[in-house]
Structures are given as structure tokens and as C-alpha cells.
Amino acid sequence: MADTTTTASATAASAANASPDSPPFQLGKPRFQQTSFYGRFRHFLDIIDPRTLFVTERRLREAVQLLEDYKHGTLHPGVTNEQLWSAQKIKQAILHPDTNEKIFMPFRMSGYIPFGTPIVVGLLLPNQTLASTVFWQWLNQSHNACVNYANRNATKPSPASKFIQGYLGAVISAVSIAVGLNVLVQKANKFTPATRLLVQRFVPFPAVASANICNVVLMRYGELEEGIDVLDADGNLVGSSKIAARHALLETALTRVVLPMPILVLPPIVMSMLEKTALLQARPRLLLPVQSLVCLAAFGLALPLAISLFPQMSEIETSQLEPEIARATSSRTVVYNKGL
């Protein structure tokens, strides 16, 4: 009873110092409304903010302690909503929500763009050899797999075989498609050398997109067989639905196709135009730095846009689900965790 009272008082104090830019703090809840695309976009910009990579150990301890004080109603006077939101952002960026252990820096969501951009640059290098194509596709899927594993749901133990299966499937599909398309382009006699080079630059996209779909299906195939939990408006478990699982995987797969599109399609178009400028023709050494900046900009824009397409907690009408789910609740709609 005492904990409930102190938490209520902390919430009231938080609401008192709220502002339009700093809404009342809610422990464990998103800062921005998730019902609109703009709200989800701002939420994911917070999640991928690379500045959290430079948070010191001391600052992390302070953030965790501040959230503990809020939880137990022992906040010091004058603590603002902005400070609480900032503390939660730091904790969620660095510590795994289930294990409470630090996530290795290159595999944090906030490190996805800084550590992933060099790989994107490698994927888009012109005049790739067979060995370099295989290497960059392998490195890209290895990085993706490590990020997926480091940020996995750890509440239920998952066999390592599922992770290995998804990883191998993604690597094999990515390498096979990339190598196959490169061979076809090389054998296309109708292409001029300039056209062949331009087409080769677009090869990584279908390879990565197909590998992403393969990875999602293999890693989460068990959800299609067993179903996923669906909840009513009050957060009560209604049941486990295979139909909701199909919707969740379809939305996630679509996100994984949209994500590499701007990253792997826009830079080749931009670079094909920039390479014709007098500056880059006179200074070819600038090509790689300029391409790196173009890739970084495309990556930084594409990631939050893609993962903001669908809400994390998606809604579906009960009439579309299994009859036993519809009978188990009076709610017209239920929600399910789509996953990232």
C-alpha cells in the first residue's frame, strides 16, 4: 500500500512540472504517442540516438538510480520530467530490458547506424570482385544477426539452433542472390561499361531485402506454429493467435524490405550524379569520403522511417482472428506485439 501511495505522489509531482515538450513521465512507457506516425518517428529517433554511446558508467548509474527513486516515490524535490525521460532513454539504450545487462556497444540500436554505415559503404563499392561481394554480404548479415540476438526477447529461452538457422539462411540467400545477379550483369553484352557499373551498384538491395525476409521467417517461424499473445484494451491476455502471428511477421518483413531501400538505392543514384561533377573528377580521392557521407545520411533517415511504419503494439479486429479468440473477449479489437 505504501509503494502505491508513493508512486502515485511521484506521478502527481511529475504531472505538475509537465510541459508540451516534456509530457508527464511514465515509467517504462514511450515518451511520444504511438498512435501516429510522427509520434513513432520521434520515439525511434530517441532509441537510435548515437549520443547514448558516449554515456559514462557514472551517468548510467545516476540514470538507473533516478528511475529507482521515482519507482519508490523517493525523488528529490525539483526533479523534472525532462530529467526522468532522459534517464529512461539512457537506461533503455544501454541495458537489456530482460537481463538488465549492458548490451555490447556495436550491437545496441543506438550503434546500428554508426557501426553499420561502413558495411553499407562496402556493399556499394564499385567494381566488386566475387570475394568482396561474398565478404560484404556475409559481414552485413553477421552484424544484423548480432544486433537481433543482442536485442532479443530474453523472457523465454530460445534454442541457439533457431538463431543459427536464421543466420545461415540469411547469409546463404544474400550471398547467392548478390553473386548470381553480379554474374548476370557481367554476362549482359547489351550493357555499356557505364550502365553495367550503375546496375551493379543496385545488386545489394535485392540481396539484402531477400535475406532480411529469410531471416525474419526462419527466426520467428515458431510464432506461426504456436501463435502470439493478443491482449484486450486493459492489457489482459485473451489468447494465442496464429493469425495475429502472420500479421506480425508480414508487417515486420515489410519493414525489413523498406529499410534497405533508401540505404542501398539512393546512394548509387546520388553518387552517379556527383561523380560527374568537376570537383570529384578532379579529385577522385574524395569519392570514398563523399560516398560515406551520402550512405550515413541515407541510413540515418531510412532507419527511423522504416521502423515507424507500424506501431510496436499493433491492433487487429477480433472478428479477423480465430473463433475461440473472438469468443474469449467482448472487445472489438485486440493488440499484439509486432516486434522490431
UniProtKB/TrEMBL annotation:
Q: Which domain of life is it from?
A: Eukaryota
User: What GO terms in the biological process aspect are recorded for it?
Assistant: amino acid transport; mitochondrial transmembrane transport; positive regulation of cold-induced thermogenesis
Q: Which residue spans traverse the membrane?
A: 166-185, 197-218, 257-274, 286-310
Spell out the GO cellular component terms annotated for this protein, sorted alphabetically and separated by semicolons. Answer: mitochondrial inner membrane
GO molecular function terms here?
citrate transmembrane transporter activity; monoatomic ion transmembrane transporter activity
Q: What are the boundaries of the region Disordered?
A: 1-26
Task: Name the predominant localization.
Answer: mitochondrion
- Which keywords, in A-to-Z order, does the entry hold? Amino-acid transport, Membrane, Mitochondrion, Transmembrane, Transmembrane helix, Transport
Q: Which Pfam families match?
A: SFXNs
Localization: Mitochondrion membrane
* Key word Ligase present: no
Q: Which InterPro entries match?
A: Mtc (IPR004686)
- Answer yes or no on keyword Mitochondrion: yes
**Membrane protein topology class:** Multi-pass membrane protein
Q: Where is the composition biased (Low complexity)?
A: 1-20
Q: Which family does it belong to?
A: Belongs to the sideroflexin family.
The name this protein carries in UniProt is: Sidoreflexin
Record the organism. Nannospalax galili (Northern Israeli blind subterranean mole rat)
Q: In the UniProt record, what gene is named as encoding this protein?
A: Sfxn5
